[in-house]
Amino acid sequence: MTPGPPLVDGIAAGARAFASFEDLRAACLDLPPGDFKAAAVAFERQSELTKPPGSLGRLEDVVGWLAQWQGRGMPRLDHVDVLVFAGNHGVTAQGISAYPAEVTTQMVANFAAGGAAINQLARTAGARLQVVPLALEQPTADFTQAPAMDEGAFLTAVDIGYQMVAAGTDLVCLGEMGIGNTTAAAATIW
After folding, report:
1. Taking the mean position of all CA atoms in its chain, how far away is CA 132?
2. What is the pTM of this model?
């Protein structure tokens, strides 16, 4: 496991990739479509394998998706990164969790010691695990009282995630850890 980028007063060192919500929105709307020819090659290969058509279910779709986004008819998983972002949620001040916010820091230490389930899953998959603590000493605001993050804090968090994706990575698996995360997730989808 490697540590995340250095944080200075909650801001990652270096220039931001996105200066505003509008920049981020524009980048998200301008994503490349992927390589449909590579996906077609992957799907065509399915018909050449000794197996009943469709017998691998969704796995066949996943292979086509990987081929499209990797731009290779035979996708590979040689360089897989598991990125777990850890942060403290201010909503825990409402007493919504069975555990105090300090447990987030303890869990990050457990990840670093190799003692969490994600450590074993990443090891079994041959993936590189990186746990990225995001200013654990500064929880977000309690979103029941105010926005959890202002634009600058949000863009900093997005930028840290953006910086963590290494060039040449075949697949990125994202995760998060933070006491209060279930409440934050439920509020986000509500």
Report:
1. 10
2. 0.85
